[in-house]
Write a structure and sequence with these properties.
By secondary structure, the chain is an alpha/beta fold. The chain folds into 2 domains: about 5-10 and about 40-55 and about 145-270, Rossmann fold; about 55-140, DNA polymerase, domain 1. The protein is about 50% helix and about 10% strand. It has 13 helices and 8 strands. It has helices at about 5-15, 20-30, 55-70, 75-85, 90-95, 105-115, 125-135, 145-155, 165-175, 185-190, 195-205, 220-230, 265-270; strands at about 45, 55, 140, 160-165, 185, 215-220, 235, 260. The strands form 2 sheets. Strands 5-4-1-6-7-8 form a 6-stranded parallel β-sheet, sandwiched between helices. It has a two-stranded antiparallel ribbon with strand order 2-3. Helix 1 packs across helix 11 (about 195-205), helix 3 packs across helix 4 (about 75-85) and helix 8 packs parallel to helix 13. The two termini are about 35 Å apart. About 40% of the residues are buried.
Amino acid sequence: MTRRTFLRTSALAVAAGDALRAASSAESQGSGATTPTSFASVKALVFDVFGTVVDWRTSVAREVEAMAKSKGVKVEGPAFADAWRAQYAPMMDQVRTGKLPWTKLDRLHRIILDRIVGDFGLSGLSEGDRRTLNRAWHRLQPWPDSVPGLTRLKKKFILAPLSNGNISLMTDLAKHSGLPWDCILGSELVHHYKPDPEVYLSTFELLDLERGEVMMVAAHLNDLKAAKAQGLRTAFVARPLERGKGGPADLTPDASVDLSAKDFVQLATALKA
């Protein structure tokens, strides 16, 4: 079976099971918690990375400020990081709609970087400086609970990122931050960006697992909603400081969530890992 045929077949199967999943979700939400036995079939956990596993804003801000200081320029790092991230979704939309051919995230990040440096007084950065700064996304720091929680979860589950980040970015990030993935999944493998269904459906094919055996973990409800629509189980871990104190963040689970935890350590406990 080709990947295209697999994805079409999976999509039809998922659509047929929507009503059953909705009823199950409503029951678990109504009870206020989902019992651990409900997750006995889960064999793999796949993770959103930017914001869920790593603190992209603080990490990028620190590197921007260090680069600017070396050039004798003062830059508000968090504002630069926010401006960089603000064009993340619109750039992926250009790929999604065909305005751009498939373009990996490193390249999209570089296009955005070149657009915004002048706004912060950094238009004089050399090509080497820009390459170095663009790779700040390869050196993001994990949230304090990420590595301890993932280490526990790895004892029981297959772990993989399911990110819009390209494979080299995810590989470097894992080495830099000590993220104990078993393999790397995500957008580059299927040439689609989340929340396209192909990204989520690829987890079943590539891990040779069935619906209900893969759980998506994310701090973003839109990601979990898209994952659940394709048959993945879902776990929500809030990251209230992702965009800084008082910044926009998803804080309360909704109907797209099967399991909610305050951090990865609590998630491991809930999943008996």
